[in-house]
Amino acid sequence: MSYYEWGTDYIVANKAFKMQIDEELKQPSKVFGATYQDLNNPYFIELNQGIKDSLASKGDQLIVLDGRLDIKEQIKMIERLIDHKVDAIFLAPVDWIGIEPALESANAAGVPIFNVSTPVYNQDMVVNVIEFDNYDAGVQNATYMMELLDSAKIAIIERTGVKASDDRVKGFLDTIAGEDAIPVMEKILKEHPEINVVYAVDDPTAIGAIDALESAGKIDEVSVFSIDGSPTAKRLVKQGKMAATAGAAPYTLGQVAVQEAYKYFDGRPIEKIILLPVKLITKENVDDYGITDWQVFDL
């Protein structure tokens, strides 16, 4: 059985870009652009919805382009948004360093970039960074793991080129540092059948690991820890197939990002870095968060 959640129809094909612009832009007060790592990831769908709804409430519009985990394509998308003179861009970069040419283009054109969810390397090139506390998400998972288990052999599944992933791993490793008999392995189940913990940097990755564990008949032997708090992950927590997920509220993040954009355009002071909290979701408290929708935190 597969637990993957697939994205909906947000992707704008390159050849259809101009047609979408002509159809959607009805002379709103402002037109914003947005491009994310991957809109097959439910987290980014929810983040996008928070941004879109918040802009719509002010009569503004959003053009959404999917990075599809391809940094070269994401750079082209940002250049197209610049060419169409959007007022600002919300960006979750596919590669935190590789995105810099697009940031240079936006800066040269005077188009402000609001960096959401995962930071860019050179933060002087964006207005600000709005993200969840990814380091603390790793800390919370590691702390709970050490409460559950006397010892662990751990496989860590991460994403390269993504600062949020690095922070999530660092928080986890810093917390277990100094603990006895906890070797950290980065290879997967077939090569290391002795592992009893999988720590994944996001829910889609963890869900894929759970699929593999079920296929191998090892789901009861391995504790899976993750980050995001998606509805599917929460259902797996409730079923006992996932030990914990550090819950974020991407819709709330989208709302905060839009609030920051309007502060900027109003000339009000804004903070350079905004860290939103994460809340560890386990079998003990999963019902408090519900299993059918994403959690929404109070602003």
TrEMBL record:
Name of this protein: Sugar ABC transporter substrate-binding protein
Family: Belongs to the bacterial solute-binding protein 2 family.
Coiled-coil stretches noted in the UniProt entry, renumbered to this chain: none
GO molecular function: carbohydrate binding
Keyword match Signal: yes
Keywords: Signal
Record has Signal as a keyword: yes
Gene3D superfamilies associated with the record: 3.40.50.2300
Location within or outside the cell: Cell envelope
Primary subcellular site in the record, as a coarse category: other
GO cellular component, one term: cell envelope
Organism: Anaerosacchariphilus polymeriproducens
Domain Periplasmic binding protein: 35-268
One Pfam match: Peripla_BP_4
